[in-house]
Specification:
Chain lengths: 371, 125
Amino acid sequence: MTSESATPLRTPLFQTHQRLGARMVPFAGWEMPLTFAGQVEEHRAVREAAGLFDVSHMGQILIMGRGAEAFLQELVPGNVAALEPGRSRYTQLCNESGGILDDLIMTRLGGEEFLAVVNAARRAVDLAAIRGRAEAHEGDVHVVDESPRWAMIAVQGPEALGILEKTLPGTAWRATPPFSFHVLDEGGSTLCISRTGYTGEAGAEILCPGEEAEDWWNRLLAEGAMPCGLAARDSLRLEAGYCLYGQDLDEETTPVEAGLAWSCAWKKPEHWPGREVHERQRSGGPPRRLVGLLSESRRPLRAGDAILTEDGEEAGHVTSGGYSPVLERGIALGYVRPPFLGGDRFQVAGRGKPVPVSKVRPPFVRRPGSN
Amino acid sequence: MDESKLLFTKSHEWIEPEGEARRCGISAHAQEMLGDIVFVELPEAGRKVSKGEEFIIVESPKAAADVYAPLSGEVVEVNEALEGDPALINKDPYGEGWLVKIKPDGTSGTDDLMDARAYKDSLEE
């Protein structure tokens, strides 16, 4: 089945969500919880205590074989060769024109074995692109789609790691920095703890076999994590200034335009798809650049709204908009063209009166101990 | 506010059935569909509105909704408390979450407005 299939896919936690009274919505070919108690309440729980997210729709792709490291070093802009075993980093998969096919977390499980965690809606595209390139490395690189096997649960917030400690036996994974990855043997079953997330808070994402997901979910719930849906996930990642594929990132957008140049290994000698375009934009400036916008009003900003200068000249558009429950103001990510990039004050025009906004460098909300 | 005494529109507004200046707002169903309300754009007091005219915008993080005037008349008062706490509409849609008071000018009828029971039935259709 692919994300285009008519019947939505369900995660192993579907019935658990229904029992908790979640409002379910179709998302990237899946039927996912939008809200449980309510978006703002869930958002605040993650900022102040801990929240629990079902992210089992995300894809897990294993890349292994004796040529895996060299293959990946030429596949993504990030520095895969520099990854220690049990460490992860954020990178992208790009096409030859430099546009982003997907953004992902790459982990070196060990030696020549890597795990890419990818967006649900892009899994099929990613697999085709990775497998297409792996053909030239026949026998040295194996690509396995592990997605159907794994459930994934994110526990996020200042109390998230404390809750995990109460839930999990053993101490090996504790006191480890963000972007580390642990594989635990749990009575013959595998459990992975990834110190990553999409909320800007401390926390982890755990990977477990689908049939064990409900048990882990309930154990984390019992320790006090609040179930959260996609709505809160979106407002949390926006406050944290994280791009969302399909909104802020797409095949027409490069990592340099999206403010992700920090994640590219400019010093590595290897070519990666789109590198010439990325280098050119890096030295000469991109044709547009992602900016953060903070409104003076509570009014949520909306994707598609126009970004205008103070004089009303069109400077770009909003790609992710919303409301920050922490700042109690409208916030947005959007793209602005170079002649206007020097400006600090803009207006955002949707329905109703244009609202004055300030250009800010994301994150909108900076949190201690965040991933 | 006793919900059972209010009149409702098909577009989910409510209004008091009688009085010189009548409070109006959005229904419990409407606020539930919108989710957490974080912003309200209210008209100025003194504005004349025609029945069915968009005169208020209510926004949650996921959607913006127009509110239509349930009767023609003049907006004589707006609920200032909503500016600081728009979530009052979620907490108490028929009480503290009222939006404006309208003084009807008598040019629009109320025949198409529903009582609470008819409105409830219409939601189940």
